[in-house]
């Protein structure tokens, strides 16, 4: 039986992976890769509300609210997007995110995000 408690722990693991990926992204100057304005300052400012919403979603999942399921689905799609976007750039010849730990985080994020999406959709259907 899939429970909201299992989803909570999967969401937490995915949050940790994605936040670590964002730390790695600062190292690789991801704002240059995606042509974002503002250099490191803009990158960090964007992450204040992003990390807030990731953590707020964890609270909502813990509270077993339907809104928490929506946040969970968004987070799982964000993880799938992160993997896909970076694999695209790697295949285009970019050197960012090619070291073993960066690849481990990206692949782990994909796996956990897919599991999270399945769990979330199952709970949404059975809401």
UniProtKB/TrEMBL annotation:
<keyword id="KW-1133">Transmembrane helix</keyword>
<feature type="transmembrane region" description="Helical">
    <location>
        <begin position="101"/>
        <end position="125"/>
    </location>
</feature>
<keyword id="KW-0472">Membrane</keyword>
<dbReference type="Pfam" id="PF20460">
    <property type="entry name" value="DUF6713"/>
</dbReference>
<dbReference type="InterPro" id="IPR046559">
    <property type="entry name" value="DUF6713"/>
</dbReference>
<feature type="transmembrane region" description="Helical">
    <location>
        <begin position="68"/>
        <end position="89"/>
    </location>
</feature>
<feature type="transmembrane region" description="Helical">
    <location>
        <begin position="6"/>
        <end position="28"/>
    </location>
</feature>
<protein>
    <recommendedName>
        <fullName>HXXEE domain-containing protein</fullName>
    </recommendedName>
</protein>
<feature type="transmembrane region" description="Helical">
    <location>
        <begin position="40"/>
        <end position="62"/>
    </location>
</feature>
<keyword id="KW-0812">Transmembrane</keyword>
């Amino acid at each position: 039986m899939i429970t909201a408690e299992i989803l909570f722990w999967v969401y937490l693991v995915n949050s940790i992976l994605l936040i670590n990926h964002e730390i790695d992204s600062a190292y690789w100057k991801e704002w240059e890769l995606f042509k974002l304005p503002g250099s490191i300052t803009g990158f960090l400012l964007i992450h204040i509300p992003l990390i807030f919403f990731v953590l707020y979603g964890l609270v909502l999942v813990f509270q077993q609210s339907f809104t928490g399921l929506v946040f969970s689905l968004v987070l799982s799609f964000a993880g799938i997007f992160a993997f896909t976007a970076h694999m695209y750039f790697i295949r285009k010849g970019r050197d960012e995110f090619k070291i073993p730990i960066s690849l481990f985080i990206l692949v782990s994020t994909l796996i956990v995000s897919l599991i999270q999406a399945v769990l979330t959709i199952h709970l949404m259907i059975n809401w």
